[in-house]
């Protein structure tokens, strides 16, 4: 055998021996090691669900009934005659006696070139009260005066003048305040009836003017009438 061939075989055998020593070959027991995993955070404990409050009802409970001051008052459909009130109203106040001296800007009438009428109606609960029939007709005939118990106030002057309801009470010598009207106790409600229409008056009672064909209604007490008469102004008024 040639020397070169012998050398190649020797080197080949040496390589096989080295592989056997290192555990090579198909019978290897090598087991792959898995890649390390990224640690995960611990799951937080489940929080208890807080209790919910009571559900607001869709329909709230009814409120207290409206106070007496908010009671609805309406006007009658049919007309009544003012003169009928003379016999149906309740007499309450004494007769009036005057001195002929001016009172709160109301003096004795000189003539009646200017002559208009206002109706004053006062209720105590559901009772219509009769007005003294001679207010302003003692000592002289005042520019403001009454002829009967109906509550019709005659305004008679030589020239057109403006009078307020407060002046009439001054002449009548009756209190006219927020807590006392002609000796009556409240609560008080004011209404104006003009042209067949009823209007609740919520302004200053001292600013109510006596106008032609105006009815001023004062309700006192906690049991007012639900319906007010609608008066017809008869000829001569």
Task: Write structural notes for this entry.
The chain is of the alpha/beta class. The protein has helices at 3-21, 85-88, 165-172; strands spanning 74-81, 90-91, 114-124, 127-130, 144-145, 152-157, 188-194, 197-201, 214-220, 227-232. It has a domain at 80-232. Strands 2, 3, 4, 5, 6, 7, 8 and 9 form an eight-stranded mixed beta sheet that branches. Strands 1-10 form a two-stranded parallel ribbon. Mean pLDDT is 81; it is low at 16-36 and 50-68.
Short description:
By secondary structure, the chain is of the alpha/beta class.
Oligomer: single chain
Q: Tell me the span between the first and last alpha carbons.
A: 166 Å
Q: What does the largest sheet look like?
A: 8 strands, mixed
Number of strands: 10
* Structural class by sheet pairing and helices: alpha/beta
| Helix content bin | 10-25%
Signal peptide: 1-20
Biased composition (Pro residues): 33-68
Keywords: Signal
Region (Disordered): 24-69
């Amino acid at each position: 055998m040639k020397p070169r061939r012998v050398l190649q075989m020797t080197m080949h055998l040496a390589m096989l021996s080295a592989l056997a020593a290192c555990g090579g070959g198909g019978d290897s027991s090598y087991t792959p090691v898995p890649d390390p995993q990224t640690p995960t955070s611990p799951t937080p404990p489940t929080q208890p669900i807080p209790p919910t409050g009571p559900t607001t009802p869709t329909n709230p409970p009814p409120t207290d009934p409206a106070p007496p001051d908010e009671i609805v008052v309406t006007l009658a459909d049919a007309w009544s005659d003012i003169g009928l009130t003379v016999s149906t109203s309740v007499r309450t106040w004494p007769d009036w006696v005057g001195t002929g001296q001016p009172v709160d800007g109301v003096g004795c009438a000189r003539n009646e070139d200017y002559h208009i009428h206002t109706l004053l109606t006062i209720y105590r609960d559901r009772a219509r009260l009769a007005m003294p029939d001679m207010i302003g007709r003692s000592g002289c005939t005042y520019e403001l005066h009454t002829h009967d118990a109906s509550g019709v106030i005659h305004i008679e002057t030589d020239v057109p003048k403006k009078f307020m309801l407060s002046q009439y009470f001054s002449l009548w010598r009756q209190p006219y305040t927020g807590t006392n009207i002609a000796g009556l106790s409240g609560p008080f409600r004011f209404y104006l009836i003009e042209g067949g229409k009823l209007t609740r008056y919520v302004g200053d009672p001292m600013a109510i003017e006596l106008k032609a064909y105006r009815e001023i209604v004062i309700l006192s007490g906690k049991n007012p009438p639900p319906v007010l008469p609608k008066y017809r102004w008869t000829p001569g008024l």
